[in-house]
């Protein structure tokens, strides 16, 4: 799976409120990942991924919107996230959310200045220094924990075979502090209130562990600098 964040667009605000900071411009699923992605199957899943990410980021707390502001109520950065699914071994939404947070962690936004002439018109000027950038805070960016109900138990990080045994799953979006920002049930089966509560509590615990492990890996990789080992064709 490949996830890229593009920050090439500067939009002029038409309204006085902040727009959604992160939008999913494209989500494509290769048929090489699984035959189910061939034809309409891949398109439907791409739409489902886009809608799920939109629900996660459609708020003011996931990403610091002020850091995307260039000129209040006039210009702002808009981030577009492209997801390309090359392989699927289960637990899809969890992997995508981890990749999105990692991509946002590595994102560098060029620093710009707003210049105003005597007539009051404004112009945006990019810094001449390619390393003069700002970074996004990913502290409140949530990760998804999917819990699959199998019998009277629920499973985290399920494989494709385990997912096939589950009639209902609960997607829990959790921040690094264990705050649940979004929940969504998938599957044709039903979940009773007691099961939902237990799955939600498990999701909160596992989400905090997931965030801690991910942040540790990202910081360790960043500390390597140019010595970082390149992996895959996107390395």
TrEMBL record:
<dbReference type="GO" id="GO:0005730">
    <property type="term" value="C:nucleolus"/>
</dbReference>
<dbReference type="GO" id="GO:0071038">
    <property type="term" value="P:TRAMP-dependent tRNA surveillance pathway"/>
</dbReference>
<feature type="domain" description="Exoribonuclease phosphorolytic">
    <location>
        <begin position="140"/>
        <end position="205"/>
    </location>
</feature>
<keyword id="KW-0963">Cytoplasm</keyword>
<keyword id="KW-0271">Exosome</keyword>
<dbReference type="InterPro" id="IPR036345">
    <property type="entry name" value="ExoRNase_PH_dom2_sf"/>
</dbReference>
<dbReference type="GO" id="GO:0034476">
    <property type="term" value="P:U5 snRNA 3'-end processing"/>
</dbReference>
<dbReference type="GO" id="GO:0071035">
    <property type="term" value="P:nuclear polyadenylation-dependent rRNA catabolic process"/>
</dbReference>
<dbReference type="Pfam" id="PF01138">
    <property type="entry name" value="RNase_PH"/>
</dbReference>
<feature type="domain" description="Exoribonuclease phosphorolytic">
    <location>
        <begin position="29"/>
        <end position="110"/>
    </location>
</feature>
<dbReference type="GO" id="GO:0000177">
    <property type="term" value="C:cytoplasmic exosome (RNase complex)"/>
</dbReference>
<comment type="similarity">
    <text>Belongs to the RNase PH family.</text>
</comment>
<dbReference type="InterPro" id="IPR015847">
    <property type="entry name" value="ExoRNase_PH_dom2"/>
</dbReference>
<dbReference type="InterPro" id="IPR001247">
    <property type="entry name" value="ExoRNase_PH_dom1"/>
</dbReference>
<dbReference type="GO" id="GO:0034475">
    <property type="term" value="P:U4 snRNA 3'-end processing"/>
</dbReference>
<dbReference type="InterPro" id="IPR027408">
    <property type="entry name" value="PNPase/RNase_PH_dom_sf"/>
</dbReference>
<dbReference type="GO" id="GO:0071028">
    <property type="term" value="P:nuclear mRNA surveillance"/>
</dbReference>
<dbReference type="GO" id="GO:0034473">
    <property type="term" value="P:U1 snRNA 3'-end processing"/>
</dbReference>
<dbReference type="GO" id="GO:0000467">
    <property type="term" value="P:exonucleolytic trimming to generate mature 3'-end of 5.8S rRNA from tricistronic rRNA transcript (SSU-rRNA, 5.8S rRNA, LSU-rRNA)"/>
</dbReference>
<dbReference type="InterPro" id="IPR050590">
    <property type="entry name" value="Exosome_comp_Rrp42_subfam"/>
</dbReference>
<dbReference type="GO" id="GO:0016075">
    <property type="term" value="P:rRNA catabolic process"/>
</dbReference>
<keyword id="KW-0698">rRNA processing</keyword>
<dbReference type="InterPro" id="IPR020568">
    <property type="entry name" value="Ribosomal_Su5_D2-typ_SF"/>
</dbReference>
<dbReference type="GO" id="GO:0035925">
    <property type="term" value="F:mRNA 3'-UTR AU-rich region binding"/>
</dbReference>
<protein>
    <recommendedName>
        <fullName>Ribosomal RNA-processing protein 42</fullName>
    </recommendedName>
</protein>
<dbReference type="GO" id="GO:0000176">
    <property type="term" value="C:nuclear exosome (RNase complex)"/>
</dbReference>
<dbReference type="Pfam" id="PF03725">
    <property type="entry name" value="RNase_PH_C"/>
</dbReference>
